[in-house]
Specification:
The structure holds two protein chains of two kinds. By secondary structure, chain A is mainly alpha-helical. In chain A, about 70% of the residues lie in helices and about 5% in strands. Chain B is mainly alpha-helical. In chain B, helix 3 crosses helix 22 and helix 19 runs parallel beside helix 21. The chains are: A mainly alpha, B mainly alpha.
Chain lengths: ~800, ~600
């Protein structure tokens, strides 16, 4: 069996195992041992199986056909970077020479080719003529890497959850819910249900990663969303939890709306959703970056044609009753239409649309509001959903869809990422809920990734995705351990916990060092790459580049500050709340062993000699990013330019210096307490209030969107009742009035005239009554007169 | 062979009516026996349709449905009122058969849901079975007159079922339903007569593969009665009218019989289209002709709500696909933006209205308005125009999506109404603000309800997604603005469904009256809800198993209309092209040719 058949089976297995676990727990969950305790073993076993399958797949990938794996692609980085720098430099100086550069770029890219991948269909959902929507797979190094990362973290979290959720095995008293009679809620535990959702979630996330077309990505995108809905709203009795769950799903749907628009733009013009070429049919990637064109981005024929629909219609009308001739004529004209600029805007719409979905899922500005509220879910959920998987999905999709993004779209991604980065980091400074600090830090780090991807740092952004997944899940699990011990989320009530729970404290310290990018920790390498890329981008694009670089560097300082504020406030100094301190305890081994495992990863996963980056490099999309068509001044450097010694050194210095600055500030405030936070708060009161209230986004959205929608809904319902039904009732009323009027006519006109007639008849009869005398002689007389008269009449008549 | 078709189709249609006759003999005092008998009848009908759905064994000719065949199957035509060319003419294809399956399936489940009916059980069951005959008959009838008869047969039982067994405002709701539907059927009757008196099989014969024709139409596919064919082949000048829906479609597409001006500069087929469309659209229902629906749904007893939402609404969509578009393509082409615009309006309007409802059942009713908007939108996306070089694929996708949406909505809305009914039976109110905490009280019921409501929400993996998604995807190449509005509806749908689920099922405790009566869901209720959810999952995961039945027929409909667009409507020189189809104009079409020439000049 060769790799091409084995890998899909292996990853398919890794993908479906959690589904099997989900189905099993749904059907027999409550009967699995005492209070469904076995459910956790089933779910954990399933995800462990997935992990094994993923690791085997990784091994196969690395060791299979090494020539292919590290051949042209591997050399690409080493050999090709020098000419590319020259090309990039040329762009900066004289952007107009662009056309001249293509020859060399195309030639060079032609050798590179698309990355090694395997793609194919599993089964078809629907097929209409040439259009088909399928369930398919697309496996490249990125897929393999994501599988390994997701299953590894999910496995750690499953183990951890067995410990964390053990309260749910017995009857639970929910102290956050007060019933109408003033008591706290007592409810049966829901241990199995938690693992049921976790399994479904793992299945959905893995399906999203293995998906071979955009429609399937969207399917699992939604499933991930609904799983997070269930998990965030796990405490269904808490109003805040169910609100947060609704908010998460609906805000995500707003992003999905954009994603659907992007998908429609792709579907209507390209007629396919597949990433790669399946069964000889061109996928999206090879349509937008064709080999003939040197893998340079251009509007594919389908888009040009869809955009020039009017022109195409003219051609068709010129060839009446000859569709084949019209078709070939249209194809012949596509090139000139493309030169007129047709189709490019569709490419931009598609790119921005898909990115909208990523904005929702990865909690980017302006749809970042759901993620902090999502901390209502149990902490292991936060660790899984909001560090390594669901929010990572958006970044993953940007990475996956990278070949399709036009430079203008990339700039949008970078700007959104930069705004998110600063916004979230600033809110994290004042937050006091341990999980919310981490949540905002997640949002901010996701902003980093988006910024990196948007600046052309494909590998940098995805590398940070992977390192961040490890240290952020570590941080979340540590915070879970703290919450488990203290029964509170409020860091102002903690302090001095270091001595009581050393495992948690020091693994969390590792996480903090990793996230701020301390040297030799994983975050150092990935953040370094991002800042180097920002610098490299700045070299070519002075105006936007400078701002974006400043954001990237400044963000590092803020990150260091709030992370160590968190760590110092939680673990060092005097305990602020005796009660909390006395009850605190270290967590059981089933919880801290995963912490240690994750801590090891959080340190080591970034080490260059471990090869994460070179694995990612194997999936690097073919072709250069190039230059904007709508924004001709926008020029993208090749990512390898950022590896140049001078750029890299400067970036390292900047990153380390800013991080150190933020760290020292945190030490001054919260470590050695030379500065008083309260005083600073007093001095910057308005700013503090703004940050404390999360820039008032929730209130703003309430006024801008939620209330207007409810008003509109009310207006529509009122219109229904008042106007439409009013008209109906009105017409019914008028019909009845007409009937009444009819009745009046009947009674007074028709009946009256009939009555008058009757009266006449009556009076006539009355007057004739006088003839009825009863005397026989008179009657005989009348008969005789009558007979004579008749005879005379008949005679007269017959005579004529 | 024909006798087999006659027997099978007639049995499916009239078995319920026969059952109703037998029920007359039952003593009134045995309601359980009456219900059981009715249930058995509906089960038998369902089994018959399932038998038809199972593919025949290799090489054996059976009257079962043949997968992959696009045309009419099992069609037969029997003398009924020959002097007016009215026939007992029935048949099935992928479009109608899937709806017949849905009907028999839901009728069976809704009969199971009728166990709580205690008032006048015998009358209820008789009317119920008559209703089933009417519904299945509508989907199978291919003679326009027969279609109309079934359409009316279905109307009366429904009126009584709402008006007698309904809630407090049942009379109001029943009369509203009756009047609305009656207006629709009167308009339809006018259109039927317009079409009938302008139809001429002789003109069609000139375009057919009968001797002397242009071979554009396959005569045998019309399944005309042998006597009629004989009459057509005899020379003569008098037009031969017909109620045959298939023949009328061909006349609409291949002759200019319906192109004459009727009123105010509009052609005859334009008026026929408008009248038929309004008639069908009331059933769908569209905004602004939808207000009968919330009232009827709210007042109707649970099983009747299931039937209303699950099947009756589908007749509107079916009529538009089977009758409006094929018979009046010219009008449909001109009014395509009106049709799709109404579809989009219904989607958005229904979703907004649902968001504002306080009554659980009303909310589900408005969600039906919103979901059925997709059907209209999918039918109407006429993308096979010059700008796509008459590529019918996106339109086929839209219409297939619309058909799928009809089935999916039949399952999810019937399920939703049943779920409302289950809780209503216990606590006797539907006020959304007075629920809460049901998940804790009745987890199995709530779990099933979540599944079914998520199917309505359009969650991937459940049936609602496929229909909505396919329709939405097909719209962009037709109209970008409508596509964007259609896509935006997903946000509203999520909002009203999630908000409802939160208010009803989540939360700490039940807030309404009769909290002590919330008992676990019974086995009978599970037996109704679980199959619905199972089908919702099945069609969500393996939509191809349903598409296999409907796609060939839907694609055929679309392809014919696409060809018509290319060869007739947009060929630039309408009259000339028609003549060129008439390669051998015969005496009987000369008049037609003249009319075409005059139209060409106009």
């Amino acid at each position: 069996m060769d790799t091409a058949t084995f890998l899909p089976i292996l990853l398919g297995l890794a993908w479906l195992l959690p589904l099997a676990s989900f189905a099993l727990i749904v059907l027999v969950g409550p009967r699995m041992g005492r209070a469904g305790v076995m459910a956790s073993y089933v779910a954990t076993g399933a995800i462990l199986g997935s992990l094994v399958a993923s690791v085997v797949a990784l091994g196969i990938w690395v060791f299979s056909s090494p020539a292919e794996a590290s051949g042209p692609r591997g050399e690409h980085g080493a050999v090709a970077s020098a000419p590319h720098e020259a090309t990039a430099g040329g762009h900066a100086g004289e952007a107009k020479e662009h056309a001249g550069d293509h020859a060399s770029a195309a030639e060079h890219q032609a050798q590179a080719g698309p990355p090694r991948h395997y793609t194919g269909d599993w089964y078809t959902l629907g097929r209409f003529g040439a259009l088909a929507i399928t369930v398919s797979y697309y496996i490249d190094a990125l897929t393999i890497g994501m599988f390994a990362m997701v299953t590894a973290i999910a496995t750690c979290i499953h183990f951890y959850s067995i410990g964390y959720m053990h309260d749910e095995l017995d009857e639970v008293v929910d102290h956050e819910v007060t019933l109408s009679d003033g008591r706290h809620l007592h409810r049966p535990g829901r241990f199995h249900r938690f693992f049921q959702y976790m399994s479904l979630f793992s299945f959905s996330m893995l399906g999203l990663v293995v998906a071979g077309n955009v429609a399937m990505v969207f399917v699992f995108w939604e499933l991930v969303g609904i799983c997070s809905y269930f998990l965030i709203g796990f405490y269904i009795e808490r109003k805040s939890a169910t609100n947060a769950a609704n908010k998460a799903f609906i805000v995500n749907r707003i992003g999905d709306f954009g994603m659907i628009v992007g998908m429609m733009a792709l579907w209507a013009s390209l007629g396919t959703f597949a990433f790669g070429d399946v069964d000889g049919r061109q996928g999206i990637f090879s349509q937008v970056r064709s080999a003939e064109n040197g893998y340079r981005l251009e509007a594919p024929a389908g888009m040009v044609r869809a955009s020039a629909a009017e022109l195409a219609a003219e051609v068709v009308r010129d060839h009446p009753r000859n569709p084949a001739a019209a078709e070939s004529e249209i194809l012949a004209r596509v090139v000139s239409w493309r030169e007129q600029g047709h189709g490019y805007w569709l490419l931009v719409v598609a790119g921005i649309g898909i990115f909208c979905g990523c904005v929702g899922k990865s909690a980017q500005f302006p749809l970042h509001v759901w993620l902090p509220d999502a901390m209502e879910g149990p902490t292991p959920v936060s660790a899984l959903v909001h560090s390594a998987t669901m929010v990572a999905a958006g970044v993953y999709l940007v990475g996956r869809f990278y070949p399709v993004f036009a430079p203008e779209v990339l700039l949008v991604i970078a700007v959104i990422g930069a705004i998110t980065l600063l916004l979230a980091a600033s809110i994290a400074i004042t937050a006091v809920d341990i999980k919310r600090v981490l949540a905002y830090s997640t949002v901010s780090q996701l902003g980093y990734m988006m910024l990196a991807l948007g600046l052309g740092g494909w590998a940098a952004g995805l590398f940070h995705l992977i390192t961040h997944a490890f240290f952020k899940s570590l941080l979340f699990l540590c915070s879970g351990s703290v919450i488990h011990a203290c029964h509170t989320n409020d860091i102002t009530r903690m302090g001095g916990l270091r001595k009581i729970m050393p495992w948690t404290a020091y693994t969390m310290l590792v996480g903090c060092l990793a996230i701020i990018g301390a040297p030799l920790f994983s975050g150092f390498f990935s953040k370094d790459a991002i800042i180097a890329q920002a610098l490299s981008f700045w070299n070519l694009n002075p105006t936007p580049g400078g701002v974006l670089f400043a954001v990237a560097a400044g963000g590092a300082a803020v990150t260091a500050f709030y992370m160590f504020r968190l760590w110092f406030m939680t673990f060092t100094g005097e305990p602020r709340d005796r009660h909390v301190h006395e009850h605190a305890h270290e967590s059981p081994p089933i919880m801290y062993v995963p912490l240690v495992v994750l801590a090891v990863f959080a340190v080591a996963v970034g080490w260059p000699w471990l090869g994460v980056v070179s694995l990612l490099e194997q999936a690097r999309p073919a072709g250069e990013l190039g230059q904007g068509l709508l924004l001709p001044g926008l020029v993208y450097p090749d990512e390898h330019a950022s590896h140049a010694a001078d750029v890299h050194l400067l970036a390292t210095l900047v990153a380390s210096a800013t991080a150190l600055g933020g760290f020292l500030l945190a030490v001054l405030f919260y470590g050695v307490r030379l500065l008083d936070p309260a005083e600073a708060r007093q001095q910057f009161r308005p700013l503090y209030n703004l940050l404390w209230n999360k820039w008032h986004f929730d209130e703003l959205y309430q006024v801008l969107f939620v209330r207007p929608v409810h008003l509109a809904a009310g207006a529509v319902a009122a219109f229904d009742k008042g106007v439409i039904d009013g008209l109906i009732h009105g017409s019914a009323r008028w019909t009845r009035r007409l009937a009444d009027f009819d009745d009046l006519i009947d009674r007074y006109l028709v009946d009256q005239s009939v009555n008058v007639f009757a009266a006449w008849t009556w009076s006539l009869g009355n007057s004739l009554r006088s003839v009825q005398t009863g005397r026989l002689r008179q009657y005989v007389m009348l008969i005789v007169i009558g007979t004579v008269a008749l005879t005379v009449l008949i005679n007269f008549a017959s005579a004529r | 062979m024909q006798s087999q078709y006659v027997l099978l189709l007639s049995l499916v249609v009239f078995l319920p009516a026969l059952g109703a006759l037998v029920l007359l003999l039952f003593p009134k005092e045995k309601p359980e026996a009456i219900k059981l008998f009715s249930l058995v009848v509906t089960v038998l009908v369902f089994l018959l349709t399932v038998y038809m759905a199972v593919p025949s064994p290799e090489g054996v000719a059976t009257p079962r449905f043949e997968l992959g065949a696009a045309g009419m199957q099992d069609a037969f035509s029997i003398d009924w009122i020959p002097s007016f060319n009215i026939f007992y003419f029935m048949g099935i294809d992928g479009i109608s058969f899937t709806l017949v399956l849905l009907t028999s399936f839901l009728s069976m489940l809704a009969m199971g849901a009728s166990w709580n009916i205690t008032k006048h059980v015998k009358a209820y069951c008789i009317l119920y079975l008559l209703l089933e005959t009417g519904m299945i008959g509508v989907f199978m009838a291919l003679d326009f007159f027969l279609f109309y008869v079934f359409w009316e047969v279905m109307l009366l039982p429904m009126y009584f079922l709402i008006g007698v067994w309904g809630g407090p405002r049942r009379e109001y709701a029943a009369i509203k339903f009756f009047l609305y539907t009656l207006v629709g059927s009167v308009l339809m009757l006018i259109a039927i007569l317009i079409l009938y008196f302008n139809s001429d099989l002789r003109a069609l014969a000139a375009q057919s593969d009968l001797p002397g024709g242009s071979r554009a139409v396959a005569w045998d596919d019309l399944h005309l009665h042998a006597d009629v064919t004989r009459a057509v082949r005899e020379p003569g000048d008098n037009p031969i009218h017909t109620f045959n829906i298939l023949a009328l479609s061909k006349m609409g597409q291949h002759t200019d019989l319906f192109d004459a001006e009727l009123l105010w500069g509009r052609s005859l087929q334009w008026w026929a289209f408008v009248l038929l469309f309004i008639g069908f659209a009331i059933k769908i229902p569209i905004v602004p002709l939808h207000t009968w629906l919330p009232d009827a749904h709210v007042e109707a007893p649970t099983p009747i709500s299931m039937i209303l939402a699950g099947i009756l609404l589908k007749m509107g969509g079916y009529g538009i696909i089977r009758i409006c578009y094929p018979i009046c393509p010219d009008a449909a082409y001109d009014l395509a933006y009106v049709v799709t615009g109404i579809g989009v309006l219904s989607m958005v309007y229904g979703a907004f209205a649902a968001l504002a409802q306080k009554d659980f059942k009303r909310l589900v009713a408005y969600s039906s308005v919103s979901h059925m908007g997709y059907v209209l939108l999918g039918i109407g996306v006429w993308t096979a125009t010059a700008s796509t070089n008459y590529n019918p694929d996106y339109w086929a996708m839209g219409m297939n999506g619309a058909m799928f949406q009809m089935i999916a909505h039949g399952i999810s809305s019937a399920g939703m109404f049943f779920m409302v009914g289950v809780i209503y039976d216990r606590v006797h109110h539907r006020n959304l603000d007075e629920f809460g905490g049901l998940f804790g009280r009745s987890p199995l019921y709530s779990g099933l309800a979540f599944g079914i409501f998520f199917a309505g929400l359009g969650l991937p993996g459940l049936c609602g997604f496929i229909g909505e998604f396919f329709v939405t995807l097909s719209v962009w190449s037709y109209s970008k603005a409508m596509a964007v509005v259609a896509a935006a509806t997903v946000i509203l749908t999520a909002a009203y469904i999630l908000w409802t689920l939160q208010r009803v099922y989540l939360g700490a405790e039940y807030r309404g009256p009769h909290g002590d009566r919330i008992t676990p869901i019974t086995g009978r209720e599970v037996a109704i809800a679980a199959p619905l959810l199972a089908f919702a999952i099945w069609f969500g995961v393996l939509p191809q198993s349903l598409f296999n039945y409907m796609t060939p027929s839907v694609n055929k409909t679309v392809q014919e209309l696409a060809d018509w667009t290319r060869d007739v409507k947009e060929s630039g020189q309408r009259g000339a092209s028609r003549l060129s189809i008439n390669q051998a104009p015969t005496a009987s079409t000369e008049g037609g040719a003249k009319r075409v020439a005059s139209r060409g000049q106009r």
